Amino acid sequence: MRVYIADDNLEFSRFVRRVAEMEGWKATTCTNGRELAAEVAAEERAALLIVDINMPELDGIEVIEELKAIKRQLRIRFVTGGEITSAVAAQMIAKARGMDSGRLLFKPIAVEELKELFRSEAKLLYE
């Protein structure tokens, strides 16, 4: 199981990575959208993407445009610690581009909520 975590908040991305690895996921962290797009493009397997809305270089909305040409199964979960409007916009754009986007995530996120997220996403991607 593969997850990419894109967030410029290093403490948050390390936290998500630790929980993902506890749940059996192979995790890669990225600090901006451009890095995420490059990492995902280099991979060929299905993956979960946890994408912060507000990041440098490419934000969560811009990264959708970079990923839309990828034809394998990607599940996207947008995360924000700010206003909900940008997150909702990103989710709508992703759906319009034919990308799977689960419910929004809001910081701070509890360990148990993340564990449940990884369990439910594993079922959707790999079963």
Provide structural commentary.
This protein is an alpha/beta fold. The chain has a single domain, classed as Response regulator (Rossmann fold, 3-Layer(aba) Sandwich), CATH 3.40.50.2300. 46% of the residues lie in helices and 21% in strands. Strands 1, 2, 3, 4, 5 and 6 form a six-stranded parallel sheet that branches. Strand 1 (2-6), helix 1 (10-22) and strand 2 form a beta-alpha-beta unit. Helix 1 crosses helix 5. The longest helix has 16 residues, at 111-126. The protein is globular. The mean pLDDT is 93.
Overview features:
5 helices, globular, 127 residues, Response regulator, 6-stranded parallel β-sheet, Rossmann fold, alpha/beta, Bact_response_regulator
Topology:
Elements: E1 2-6, H1 10-22, E2 26-30, H2 33-41, E3 47-52, H3 60-67, E4 74-80, H4 84-96, E5 100-101, E6 105-106, H5 111-126
Parallel strand pairs: 1-2, 1-3, 3-4, 4-5, 4-6
Helix pairs in contact: 1-5, 2-3
Summarize it.
The chain has 127 residues and is α/β, with parallel strands linked by helices. The protein contains five helices and six strands, in the order E-H-E-H-E-H-E-H-E-E-H.
Treating each run of at least 4 consecutive H or I residues as one helix, how many helices?
5
Count of the separate structural domains:
1
CATH topology name = Rossmann fold
Strand content: 15-25%
Name the CATH superfamily assignment: Response regulator
Give me the count of strands.
Answer: 6
**Rg on CA atoms, Å:** 13 Å
Mean pLDDT across the residues is 93
Summarize the main sheet. 6 strands, parallel
Percent of residues in helices comes to 40-55%
Distance between the termini: 11 Å
CATH class bucket: Alpha Beta
Spell out the helices and strands N to C: EHEHEHEHEEH
Q: Report the uncertain regions.
A: none
What spatial form do the alpha-carbon principal axes imply?
globular
Structural class designation: alpha/beta
CATH architectural group: 3-Layer(aba) Sandwich
Pfam families: Response_reg (PF00072)
Protein name: Response regulator
Organism: Cypionkella sinensis
Keywords: Phosphoprotein
